[in-house]
Amino acid sequence: MSNQNDLDDQLYILLASMKEYREAIADDNKRLEQFYNQVASGVLDKAEKSLENANKKHTGALNNSIQALNEATNRLNLKFIIIFASTFVAVMMVFILAIFLYVPSKDEINERRADMAVLKKYPLQIRESDGETLVRIMTKK
């Protein structure tokens, strides 16, 4: 029986050590889980912070670019307005100058009409050919 008691004692010792190992493994699993959770949350926090910083930097750079583009657009708009206005004024001045140079005044038109009325009294044939005024004096035969 001593052999049986020794065997039972060994079994109890083995069961007790297995129970301790199970508890140790469960504790190790809990500690590993906590460690993994801490690592994961730390990595997530660091990644989130770095992404926020990068987002802020890029947003600032984009805002600066937008502001520079707006300023350039305003300058170009101002230049366009100035060029357009000066071109319009120049065209209008040329048009008004052309009117003064090529369109006769009312006094000159009246003078020409009076000259034509005087010339109609005489026996003349007046016509235009190739931009020249031709006058034929009719004589009595």
From TrEMBL:
Spans traversing the lipid bilayer: 80-103
Coiled-coil spans in chain: 18-64
Domain of life: Bacteria
Keywords assigned by UniProt, alphabetized: Coiled coil, Membrane, Transmembrane, Transmembrane helix
The protein's name: Uncharacterized protein
Source organism of the structure: Acinetobacter haemolyticus ATCC 19194
